[in-house]
Automatic annotation (TrEMBL):
Gene3D superfamilies: Bypass-of-forespore C, C-terminal domain. This is BofC C-terminal domain-containing protein. Residues 141-216 form the Bypass of forespore C C-terminal domain. It holds the Pfam family BofC_C. It comes from Paenibacillus zeirhizosphaerae.
Length: 231
């Protein structure tokens, strides 16, 4: 067989191999994309179902949750502010479901500060040793920082845990309830348990509530009984 025929056969075989490799590659890419979609859909389906347990651990965001009347303690504090008649430096401490923020509101005259407190009956106030006023409020939401970098995963003791960053960094924000790992591995749709182990990104209060509700179905019985007391 001469050299020309060898080259011709080689080119023909190379075209056949290249076509087979391209077909195999495309089939693999399609399978990977299909699996990714299925996993995402499985997790989304789980998180849209409301679990019957762990409702005490969830934050319900409704218009009627805020206080609309001053407590006796608040009235007493406002009276103290008015009676001193002093200008004071005022700070605001905001406690979120996940995260805490502080802000300097500036210097307030006594009457202006009293009016501010009356406009916000859900805020509490106190004086520190320097005579500064610290106001405090509760917000049923995630702080801006938590929205940027919080994950739900499995912490030590096999507890459902909220982390700052991926669970691998082990920066725990708070823990919820112990999980029945064996039941989760056999009952959850394929890939969902592994996704929880790697960390589920939490970007708003709805996702926070949804994850807690979903995985509360796998809470160990002993932790179910105390959840209402702790959360």
């Amino acid at each position: 067989m001469n050299r020309f025929k060898l080259k011709k056969q080689f080119r023909r075989r190379w075209r056949q191999w290249r076509k087979a490799l391209w077909t195999f590659f495309m089939a693999g890419a399609a399978a990977f994309a299909f699996y990714t979609v299925i996993l995402s859909d499985n997790l989304e389906d789980l998180l849209t179902d409301e679990g019957p347990a762990a409702m005490e651990a969830m934050v319900q965001v409704t218009e009627g949750d805020s206080k609309d009347e001053l407590s006796q303690q608040q009235k007493k504090f406002i009276g103290t502010v008015r009676s001193t008649g002093l200008n004071r430096e005022v700070h605001l401490l905001t406690n979120y479901v996940c995260g805490v923020e502080t802000a300097l509101l500036g210097n307030y005259r006594a009457e202006d500060l009293a009016s501010l407190l009356e406009q916000h009956p859900d805020w509490s106030g106190r004086l520190n040793a320097k005579g500064e006023v610290w106001l405090e409020r509760e917000v049923a939401d995630l702080s801006p920082m938590c929205k940027k970098n919080s994950y739900m995963g499995i912490g030590s003791g096999k507890q459902l845990t909220l982390f700052e960053g991926p669970p691998q960094k082990e920066k725990v924000i708070r823990t919820f309830f112990q999980l029945d790992i064996g039941s989760m591995e056999t009952s959850l749709p394929e890939g969902v348990f592994q996704q929880l182990r790697e960390g589920i990104r939490i970007q708003d209060i709805e996702e926070y509530n949804s994850v807690i509700s979903t995985f509360s179905d796998y809470a160990v019985e002993q932790t179910r009984k105390v959840m209402g007391q702790e959360y």
